[in-house]
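From the methods appendix. Each design record in this collection lists the tokenized structure first, followed by the designed amino acid sequence. Records were kept in a plain field format so they could be parsed without special tools. The example shown here is representative of the layout used throughout.

RECORD:
FOLD TOKENS (133 positions):
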């Protein structure tokens, strides 16, 4: 019988890049995939990119990406390294890993320990995508 620790290790090994929380393309990509540790997945088009906002301290950062009437909220460290690839629309995939895996990652790459996607509701209807009056 497999233990929870073994299952987590197997899931981590199944990731295409277990030591990185993002995938960068060489040319602009049409959409960004977001994969949460809990199994949720989203695909959002870069054509509707609004902004990216980084806040926090070096040991606890938050990056908010507004795209296609949604906010992608990332929590982790070294997230500022994602800003140039976001600006060039070269970020193809984001995924999070539990914080306990942070010690095993390359210290020169971003580490995302939490990702969430939520609809933007401040003046934009989530369903219709039109300005509210």
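DESIGN:
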């Amino acid at each position: 019988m497999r233990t929870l620790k073994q299952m987590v290790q197997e899931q981590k090994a199944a990731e295409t890049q277990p030591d990185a929380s993002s995938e960068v393309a060489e040319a602009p990509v049409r959409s960004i995939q977001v994969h949460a540790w809990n199994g949720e997945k989203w695909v959002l088009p870069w054509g509707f990119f609004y902004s990216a906002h980084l806040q926090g301290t070096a040991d606890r950062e938050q990056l908010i990406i507004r795209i296609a009437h949604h906010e992608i909220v990332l929590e982790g460290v070294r997230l500022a390294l994602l800003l140039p690839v976001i600006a060039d629309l070269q970020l193809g995939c984001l995924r999070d890993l539990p914080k306990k895996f942070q010690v095993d990652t390359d210290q020169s790459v971003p580490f995302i320990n939490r990702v969430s996607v939520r609809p933007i509701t401040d003046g934009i209807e989530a369903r219709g995508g039109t300005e509210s009056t």
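APPENDIX NOTE: The first strand starts at residue 22 and ends at 24.
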